[in-house]
C-alpha cells in the first residue's frame, strides 16, 4: 500500500449544471474588473464612472437621521427590537401601499418589504421553480436572465445568436418604439418587463401596458413588472402596472428605494403580489411567495426599514424628489451632449439612463474605445442582450462635476 | 355567445410542485400564530416568549454608535457610498477572518458577508440545485429541510414517519449523545450540521467533528456547518469546523452576528467557502457561490456592515461577550429549574437553548399545555424533526425578569 501524499481531495458532488451554463461574469462585476485594469494601466487618469448605475449623491439628512435614530434606539430597552416580520414592518408596508398605490386598492398585506429588487427577483424565481418558461425584453437588466438560467428554466447558451435556449427574447429597439411586437412573441409562463426600462431608458405608455396586460391575460401568463425607476417618469406614463385595469390578476410588481433615496448600499425594496393573482389550480401566488419569504429570508434590516419610513414622510418624499430631480438634470446634460454630437439618443426623459446608438459597431468595442480615450466607464448595450449591441448605456448617476467633465470629454472625442 | 361576467381570471402557470410539498406553515410563524390566538383568548395574561429564539437585550452602545455614525456619514459627500461589493466590504471580511479564523488560514477572500444565515442557507441551496441529496440532523433548524424541499431535492412528505422522502435524517438524541451513529447514515451529497445545535443545545466534541469530517471525506460529501451559536461554547468544543484538519476540503461554514450582538433585526452574517473545496470535476465551489451571491444578492446593508466592524473592535468584542454572558446566565436559571423539577435536561452548557424531555408525550401537546397553564411560549421539539418529539426547546433569550417569572410558573405547574 502506498499512501498518496498531498494529492488534493475532491468531493463527489456534481457541480450544478445550470450554473455552468452562465456566460462569463455577471455584467457589472465584469465592468468593474475592466475598470480596475484600466486604472492599473493609467494610474494618473481621472476615471469617471457612468457605468454601473450606482447612486453618488448623499442621502438626504431627514432620511439618515431616521436611520441613526433607529440605530441609537436599538441600544435602549424600549427601542430594541429583534426579528421583525419577514414581510416587513406593518407600518412600512402600509406607508408603501398608501404612497405608491393609494388609488389602486393595493393593501398593506399585498406588500412584501425586501432588501432590494435583485434579491426579490431571485426569490420570485425560486418560487416559480425550474418548470416555467420565461420572456424578457431584449435588452434587459441581466438578473432576470441569469436567475432564470440558475434555476434551470433555460437551455444552453447559443453563441451564434447570443441567447439562451428556452427564453423568449422580446426585441425592443428604436424601430418598434422599444415596445415588443407582441404578435411575434410566443406564450411563456412568466414575462419580465421593466419600465422605465433599464437599460434603454424608455417608459411604456398606458396604451402599450394595456396591450401587455391583455397579452398576459390571453396567454395566462404572470407578468413580473419592475418599476424601480418609476419616480423618474416625467410624462404621463403609468408609474405602476396596477394603474392598468385587470393587472392585479396577472401581475407582480418589484420596486426599490435604491434610485430614489440613494439606498443602493442601504438595501431596501418591495414586491407587490396581489391576492387576485392565481396559479392555474386557483392557488394564490401570494401565499407561496409568503412561504418563500418566510423560509429563505429574515426581513430587511430594521434600520433600513426605519430609513424607508423616513423616506415616506412628507419631508422625506420632498427630499427624494430633489434627489431624483438632480439626476434628471444630469440626464438632460448627457442627452444634450450626445444629441449635439449627432448621435441617435434614446431614453432619458423618464429614466436616469441614456441609450446611445453606434450603428454597426460592437458595444464592447465602443465601451473600450470610450474608456481608452476618455477614461469614462459606460455600459456596453450587448451586456443587456443581443438587441443591445450597437448601443451604449450612459448612466446619469454621478456628481455634477463628473458628468459635465465626461460630457466635455465626449465632445473632445467626437466633435 | 354569453360573456361570463365577473368570473375571476386564473393564470395558466402551474404552481411549483415542490412548494406544494411543504407541510403547513414554517415553524416559527406557526408558533407566532398560536401565540396571537392565545393572547386573544387571554387578553389579560402576561405572555412570556421563550419560543422563537429572538434576542431581547439592547445592542451595546459601542455597536449602535458605529451604525448611527455610518448612517450620518451617508448624508455627507465624503461619507456616502452606494453599491458595495456583493461579497461584503473588504475591511469587514478581513476582520471576520482575523477574529474568528485567525489561526486557521481562512483568508479574507474566503468570507462572504451576508444579511444572515437563513438567507445564505437558501443561497447555498440555489447553488447546489435540485440534483443533490442531503442529510440533516434530526432534530434540526427547519430552514435546512424546507429550503431543500423548495429546491426540489426531496420527495413527498410521508405523514406516517413525519419525514420527506430522499432526505437522510440523522437521529440525534440522548441515547447517542446527540451525535449521529455515522455507521447507519447513508451517503449524501450535502450534510447540514449545526453545532452548537439548534434546537438541542448540544455542541459536538473535537473527536466527533473529526469523525464527521472523515465521514464527509470518505463519502465525497460537502458539509454545511452552521456555527451561529459558537460564541456560546464554554467548554473546549471547536468553535469552527475549520479547527478540524482537512475540513477546508469538505466544509462550508455559515455564521451570524444575530445571537452575539442582538443583530436578529439588524441582519448580518457570513459564510466561509474555502478555495480548497471542489466539485467532482475539480471546479472550486467558491467560484459558483461567488456567482450566486453576485447574481441574486446585492450585499448586506452598509449600515449593518458598519455595525459588524464595531462588533469586531476590542470594545465591541467585549460588549458581545457580555451579551452572550447575560443569556448564558438565563440558560443556567432555566436548566436549574427543570433539573430541580426532575426533568431530563439537555443542552444549555454551550448554547442558549435548553432541551427538556417529556417522555411519551407529544411535543405540541406539551407546548399547548405549557402555554395554556403558564402563558409561556416554548417551541415543540417535533417542529424540528420527528426525533424532536417528546421534547420542548426552551430559549434563554429573554429579559431576566421574564425568565425568572417563567421559571416560577414552571415550578408552580410541576412542583
TrEMBL record, chains A, B:
GO terms for molecular function: pyridoxal phosphate binding; transaminase activity. Gene3D superfamilies: Aspartate Aminotransferase, domain 1 (3.90.1150.10), Type I PLP-dependent aspartate aminotransferase-like (Major domain) (3.40.640.10). One of its GO terms (biological process) is systemic acquired resistance, salicylic acid mediated signaling pathway. The keyword Transferase applies. It comes from the Eukaryota. Its cofactor is pyridoxal 5'-phosphate. Residues 46-410 form the Aminotransferase class I/classII large domain. Signal peptide: none annotated. Keywords: Aminotransferase, Pyridoxal phosphate, Transferase. It holds the Pfam family Aminotran_1_2. Coiled coil: none annotated. The keyword Transferase applies. Belongs to the class-I pyridoxal-phosphate-dependent aminotransferase family. LL-diaminopimelate aminotransferase subfamily. NCBIfam families: DAPAT_plant (TIGR03542). PANTHER family: AMINOTRANSFERASE. This is Aminotransferase class I/classII large domain-containing protein. It comes from Vitis rotundifolia.
